[in-house]
Specification:
Elements: E1 9-22, E2 28-41, H1 43-53, E3 76-82, E4 85-91, E5 98-104, E6 116-120, E7 123-127, E8 133-141, E9 144-149, E10 153-158
Antiparallel strand pairs: 1-2, 3-4, 3-10, 4-5, 5-6, 6-7, 7-8, 8-9, 9-10
Amino acid sequence: MPPPFNGRISRDYSSSKTKSWVSSDGTIHKKSSGTSVNMSVDPNAAADMVAELLGTTSGGNSYTHNAAASPQSYVGKWSISISGRECSLTLRQGQGSGGSATVFGCLNTELSDVRRWSLRGYELVLIGMFDKQIASLRVTQPNRMDGSAHGKTRVTAWR
């Protein structure tokens, strides 16, 4: 399985309120109430949610690590997971901003049709036959990319 993303954002929110009053017989009353909320968010998931709410597509996680966006930085062997399966992805340099791609061990998944890859800014797009986009991933940490296949199934690649 891919290494965990340790960049969680956590926040605690709490509030309290106390009301005091004296009844006609001289009894002092105090009523207190409070609420507390602890929230922990994966910034990758939050970016996808915001993109969806705004009607844009993030093509995976929008958080982009400051990695070199040159095709050479993506070339090589990667481990990749989809639908609970761990497979091997090999990216080879071609002309321009992409090249050929092979996936081993992912039969009967969306990734079994991958034939090539292309780099569009910080987005790595895996492409199948007839130029059909299969998955898109973005760098989320050094040597880690997160994204989705067909905009639905979560995909993670690491090395």
